[in-house]
Design goal:
Blueprint: E1 21-24, H1 46-60, H2 77-82, E2 87-91, E3 95-100, E4 106-110, E5 125-131, E6 134-140, E7 146-147, E8 154-155, E9 160-169, E10 173-182, E11 191-199
C-alpha cells in the first residue's frame, strides 16, 4: 500500500470529464473474482465452470497453465487494471490512452468510432461515449480469450466488456470503474464488478519493468507451465 499523499500534493483537473494523470489500484489483489458487485457469484454456465475447475486443478496439481501474462502478452483490461502498479491516462479530444507500468500494457480508447481500429487484438478495440460525466467504454474484437484474474476466471474472444468510468472525490480522488462482462460462451447472463483507482501524482515516473525476465528462466517462460487443453 502506497503512503498517503501530502496535503500539498497536486490535484487532478476539476473537470469531471478529464481523467489525465497517474492512478493505481491500491486494494489488495483479488486472485479470483468470487462475487459480483451485488454479492452474487459469477453466473458461470457449464462451459465456464468447466474452465474454472480445470484451471484451479492445474494450480493444485502444481502444473499451472500458460496464459498471456506468462508470455508477456497483453492480458485484457480486467487483469491488467487489477495489478498494484500505477498507470497513466493521457487524454485528448478524440481518445484516451492508458499506459501501465506492469507488463507495459496499453489500452487505447477511441471517442471517435471512425478512428478506431477494427482488426482483432489482445486488448480488443474500445469505443467510448459520455453519459453525463461517466465515460462508457465498450470493448469487443478480442484476438483471443483472456483471464479476468490471476486464477483464470474466463472470458472468450467473443466477449463484450463495458466499463463505466467516473471521477469521484471523497477524502481523496479516485476513478470508479464498473465492469460489465457479456459473454454467453461462459456465462448465463451479463454480470458486473467494481474497482477503484486512487489518484497518485507522485507515480508518474514508472519504474523499470522487464516482463521477459520475470521468471528468471530461459526465454522468460517457466518450464513448469503447461499448455491448457482446448475444448
Amino acid at each position: 500500500m502506497a503512503k498517503p499523499l501530502p496535503a500539498n500534493a497536486p490535484q487532478p483537473s476539476s473537470d469531471p470529464r478529464n481523467f489525465d494523470g497517474a492512478w493505481i489500484h491500491q486494494t489488495t489483489l483479488e486472485f479470483q473474482i468470487r462475487i459480483d458487485m451485488f454479492g452474487a457469484k459469477p453466473p458461470l454456465n457449464a462451459a465456464g465452470q468447466k474452465v474454472v475447475d480445470r484451471r484451479q486443478k492445474s494450480m493444485v496439481d502444481r502444473t499451472p497453465f500458460i496464459n498471456a501474462s506468462t508470455k508477456c502478452f497483453p492480458m485484457g483490461q480486467p487483469w491488467q487494471m487489477d495489478l498494484g502498479m500505477p498507470f497513466q491516462i493521457f487524454q485528448s479530444k478524440d481518445r484516451l490512452d492508458l499506459v501501465f507500468e506492469e507488463y507495459h500494457g496499453v489500452v487505447e480508447i477511441f471517442l471517435d468510432p471512425l478512428k478506431a481500429p477494427t482488426t482483432p487484438s489482445y486488448m480488443g478495440h474500445s469505443i467510448a461515449h459520455w453519459d453525463g460525466d461517466t465515460l462508457v467504454v465498450e470493448t469487443t474484437g478480442y484476438k483471443d480469450g483472456f483471464w479476468l484474474d490471476v486464477n483464470g476466471t474466463p472470458a472468450s474472444k467473443n466477449a463484450t466488456l463495458i466499463q463505466r468510468i467516473r471521477k469521484v472525490k471523497t477524502d481523496h480522488w479516485f476513478l470508479e470503474v464498473i465492469n460489465t462482462l457479456d459473454d454467453p460462451t461462459y456465462y448465463k447472463h451479463p454480470w458486473s464488478w467494481v474497482r477503484d483507482y486512487t489518484w497518485r501524482p507522485d507515480m508518474t515516473l514508472f519504474r523499470e519493468y522487464d516482463c521477459e525476465l520475470q521468471t528468471g528462466r530461459k526465454n522468460g517462460l517457466d518450464p513448469s507451465l503447461v499448455p491448457e487443453p482446448q475444448d
